[in-house]
User: What shape does this take?
Amino acid sequence: MTGSTLLFDPLVPLVVLLGLSLALFTLLVFAMVRRLAGWSWRGFAVICLVLALFNPSVKTEDRQPETDIVIVIMDRSSSQKLAGRPDQSVTALAHLTMALETRPNTQMRLVEVSDAQGVGGSLVMSALAQALAEEPKNRVSAAVIISDGQIHDLELVPNSDVPLHLLVTGEPEDWDRRLVVKNAPGFAILGEPVLLSLMVEDQGAAPDAGFADLFLSVDGDPEQRYQIPVNQEVEVEVALAHGGMNILQFSTPQLTGELTDRNNAAVVQINALRDRLRVLLVSGVPHPGERTWRNLLKSDSSVDLVHFTILRPPEKQDGVPVTELSLIAFPTRELFLEKIGEFDLIIFDRYKRRGLLPVEYFESIVNYVRTGGAILVAAGPEYAGVNSLYRSPLGAILPGRPTSRVFEEPILPAVTDLGHKHPVSESLEAFAPEGGWGRWMRQIELEATSGDVLMTGLQERPLLLVDRVGAGRVALLASDHAWLWDRGFEGGGPQAEMLRRVAHWSMREPDLEEEALLATVTETGLLATRRSLTDDAVSALGVTTPSGEILTIPFEEVALGRYEALISNEELGLYRLRSDDLEVVAALGPAAPREFVQTIASAKILAPVLAQTGGGSMAISQGLPKLRDVRSGRPAHGRGWIGLVARDAYTVQGVQIAPFVPAWIYLLLSAAGLLAGWLREGRRN
Assistant: This one.
């Protein structure tokens, strides 16, 4: 196959040549008007000279024809695996393959698109854009998509003049039921009902249905059953069982005839928070550490602090009439008998028995702790004396017995081996300033009687102890000099972090539980973290997958008292994890992936894009299309057929350039013209 093209390569600058041509043409017109003898022959000579100066040549190309390319995008996403769609897709692909093989000078490029378990959806346009970028633009004849029409990257439609066609899978009678969570908060107040908006939606040619069953399970507990109207948004009230993350699973049973049950469930994760943490801080005497406690608790906006400082104990006798004092009386009965259950934590800061609190009040506090309350004692020298809190009914629940000895000398707090495992004190040393923690100047000598010793001081005596009493918590700090860390003495230390952890552990924050099983979603799967204080190895992780398969995965120790196991299963849905007597529920990915949000096949989404390119859509269930050749820019679809643009593309194998006429011929013709003009002029004269 060859092709020829006429080229011009002027021998003088084009501006000069055009000026010369204009001047000669003007003279020629003048001669013609004046009817000068031999003007036509001289004009012929001038034209030959001008053509010679334009230097015309012929370019001959040796062309190799190139085939037209038809891009076929095969959608193999999850929704394309429903009902009979896989068979329809295979049939359509085979039909296109055979038709393109019989079409001369044509080749097919197949691109398959997956959705990675439905997370990303059908990214057909991204695949089409990449395929078009990899092929020469002048060779692409058309693009054909075999899909259900549910495309999730329509905003990435490539800018191209290539006709785009869609072969739609599915059947006209397809229908499906989907559970939709319209509105669900990410956070909620513990103890208050949560209102969620849901809807059971029927898509496609669904049969008439008035109501549908709705089942609710919180953290895998037994299901609760509701009946709600179909295709109507309803509100469901849910009570959260515990603080921290609550996983709610809603589901509706699969009905006969619907396409799939993958969208019949929805998982909602709600973090339950306490509305307000009420803390009662009772300071026995004013001292520098009192403000430390107050600043710590007031800095947390979720804490309601009630703080009493005993400025005028009963034994103080200074002769000032009571009527002239502006002090607030300590409302002991109201706080310790009538409203004690409203507090989440009671802190005794350097408090000693003064006769303000009768024995029955201390017994009320003990009962408050055993039924789920919490107390924290920051001990000063008073704890070692005869009026110590330990020598009250509180001594039955406090984990440290005073020896009546007080160390008034520098002490350096240290975390115990058990403390490195306990969530209250683990990694505290990472907060140490350069050079280590600063020292404290006082410690009350204790003998641990129960609980866990997390920190020690002088002579490895217990400094920080925690214990569980009944359903409640007790913490004891055997020094009133933690405030030295806050003031930066000798570099300071993590005073705020330590006291925050102690306080929040006392109030049963889930992240600070000693024995805990936690689950976190990562990029590689589901990461299970097991925390334990025992020296024995924890049992392996038992996993129940969304499909019901039971797996056993061993834990790997990553730090003292901390173990991890990675669940890399790609199955999406609700996982139930167990280790020893701990159990947790976690959701990996959406319960209804993106591919199953809309499952009814339709060409409506792609219709505007197809119209812009001149292409069209055809349902495979109604027959397979014939292929026709069309001109570029013309409509490329009709009843029962789709069009391909014949590109007639080629590559040049070689080029040859030769003069259009040899130079001597120009010279000969010009001379002949001049001679003929001279003779014509002489004959006339």
Q: What stands out?
A: The mean pLDDT is 85.
